[in-house]
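Lecture notes, continued. The same structure-token format from the folding unit now serves as the input rather than the output. Read the line below as a description of shape only.
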């Protein structure tokens, strides 16, 4: 009986010791959590700010991304300015925007810092915008048919186009004159139009035909002029356009619609410079 008594006594003593150890462990964990929370609340941070511009032109890059992590990122405003609160110490950053190469930077933040960044144009986008202006001379190399004329027709004209930088769009103005292919103008349907055009280059949208050096496009044109048949009429002209640019050559198709119910389908190969 004495042995059992001693064993129970030791068991109760061990139980009290385990309770004390558990309380000490809980107290340590709570203390560590409180200390960690205090350190987080006392974490020193500084403001990083600056301008993001294009390296070649110096113009701002609105909407550029500044990334330091899933919860530490921002976008540049319309003037290319950005501002971001970051913890002190070594900070790694990524600056990126559509049409530009990603720029990486590493700074040691120990005070508020101004960091201006210049983004280099992406090589692929740069390729699609090698030219800003182009002049297209249609000189009796465009053929088609019209519902107002029994035979084949031809069209010639002059068109100037401007490549809008950093977009797939190209705007232009031009003049065209359509007439019978046999050049017999007596009692033949013919018309001229001055117009404005808007084309979209499909390469920059990811639509590539054959090789990167072929640039397909679709577009529209609208303008006004005069038609000649039984009498002279003022007309409005609308056209759907599509084609492929290969170096300085343009293979194209145009469908014309005139308000006096004249219709014309033309295709051709022209050279632009």
């Amino acid at each position: 009986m004495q042995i059992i008594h001693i064993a129970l006594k030791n068991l109760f003593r061990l139980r009290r010791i385990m309770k004390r150890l558990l309380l000490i462990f809980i107290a340590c964990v709570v203390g560590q959590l409180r200390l960690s929370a205090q350190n987080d609340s006392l974490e020193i941070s500084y403001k990083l700010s600056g301008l993001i511009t294009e390296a070649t032109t110096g113009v701002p890059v609105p909407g550029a991304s500044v990334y330091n992590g899933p919860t530490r990122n921002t976008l540049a405003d319309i003037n290319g300015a950005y501002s971001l609160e970051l913890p002190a110490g070594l900070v790694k950053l990524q600056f990126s925007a559509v049409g530009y190469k990603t720029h990486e930077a590493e700074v040691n933040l120990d005070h508020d810092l101004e960091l201006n960044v210049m983004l280099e144009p992406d090589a692929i986008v740069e390729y699609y915008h090698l030219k800003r202006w182009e002049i297209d001379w249609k000189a009796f190399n465009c053929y088609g048919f019209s519902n107002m004329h029994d035979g084949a027709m031809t069209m010639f004209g002059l068109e100037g186009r401007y490549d809008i930088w950093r977009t797939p769009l190209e705007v232009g103005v031009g003049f065209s004159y359509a007439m019978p292919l046999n050049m017999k103008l007596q009692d033949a349907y013919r018309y001229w139009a001055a117009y404005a055009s808007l084309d979209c280059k499909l390469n920059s949208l990811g639509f590539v035909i054959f090789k990167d050096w072929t640039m397909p496009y679709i577009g529209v044109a609208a303008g006004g002029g005069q038609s000649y048949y039984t009498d002279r009429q003022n007309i409005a002209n609308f056209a759907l356009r599509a084609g492929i640019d290969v170096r300085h050559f343009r293979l194209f198709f145009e469908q014309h619609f005139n308000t006096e119910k004249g219709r014309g389908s033309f295709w051709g190969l022209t050279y632009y410079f």
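Point for the exam: The chain has two helices and 16 strands.
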